[in-house]
């Protein structure tokens, strides 16, 4: 069973807390209707993510929801990806508000969840990795290497992840 790579956008792919424009990034202005957003994007991220798509099923796990496909994916050179949505979002007592949705969406599939606001302790399953990213820096080459390393150390044979009847 292939693992998911769950992608938050603001933080990992748009280091919105950076001081200025970090090296390797470009500022983009995105407009839709009367709304305008400024985001910082690194063209290497699209290439890195497309490479990871040979191992992972990429999924948007961002509050941009379907806007990620409409507005962001084309700028990164990514295809349209499945998207987790967050209906009836309720505050949670502790941890990330995304956690319950991600648990339901992923079921028993292995995954790496890349996010600047989630802690490693959100999921502690053997085949679950929460990968926090600094929103001042965004995903680095080291992070992509670590994600590839995690996948290489796992066996994703069906035997290892039996599906429920
Ligand atoms: Mg974020």
How would you characterize the overall build of this protein?
- With 165 residues, this protein is of the alpha/beta class.
- The protein has a single domain (4-157), classed as Rossmann fold (3-Layer(aba) Sandwich), CATH 3.40.50.1000.
- The protein is built from four helices and six strands; from the N terminus they run E-E-E-H-E-H-H-E-E-H.
- The strands form two sheets. Strands 4-1-5-6 form a four-stranded parallel beta sheet, with no helix packed on it.
- The two termini are 15 Å apart.
- Residues 158-162 have low confidence and may be disordered.
- Residues 8, 10-11, 115-117 line the site of magnesium ion.
Largest sheet: 4 strands, parallel
- Uncertain parts: 158-162
Per CATH, what is the topology?
Answer: Rossmann fold
State the total count of DSSP E strands: 6
**Which series of helices and strands comes N to C?**
EEEHEHHEEH
- Top-tier CATH class: Alpha Beta
Q: Helical segment tally?
A: 4
Name the CATH architecture. 3-Layer(aba) Sandwich
Helix amount: 10-25%
Ligand species: magnesium ion
Pfam family, one: HAD_SAK_2
Protein name: Secreted protein
Organism: Kribbella jiaozuonensis
């Amino acid at each position: 069973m292939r693992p998911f790579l769950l992608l938050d956008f603001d933080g990992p792919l748009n280091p919105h807390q950076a001081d200025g424009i970090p090296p390797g990034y470009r500022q983009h202005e995105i407009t839709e209707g009367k709304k305008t957003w400024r985001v910082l994007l690194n063209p290497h991220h699209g290439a890195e993510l497309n490479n990871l798509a040979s191992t992972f099923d990429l999924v948007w796990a961002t509050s941009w929801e379907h806007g990620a496909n409409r507005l962001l994916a084309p700028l990164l050179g990514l295809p349209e990806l499945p998207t987790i949505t967050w209906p009836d979002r309720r505050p949670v007592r502790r941890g990330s508000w995304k956690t319950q949705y991600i648990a339901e969406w992923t079921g028993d599939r292995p995954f790496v969840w890349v996010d600047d606001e989630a802690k490693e302790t959100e999921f502690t399953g053997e085949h679950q990795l929460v990968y926090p990213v600094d929103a001042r820096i965004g995903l680095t080459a080291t992070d992509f290497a670590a994600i590839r390393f995690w996948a290489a150390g796992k066996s994703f044979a069906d035997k290892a992840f039996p599906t429920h009847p």
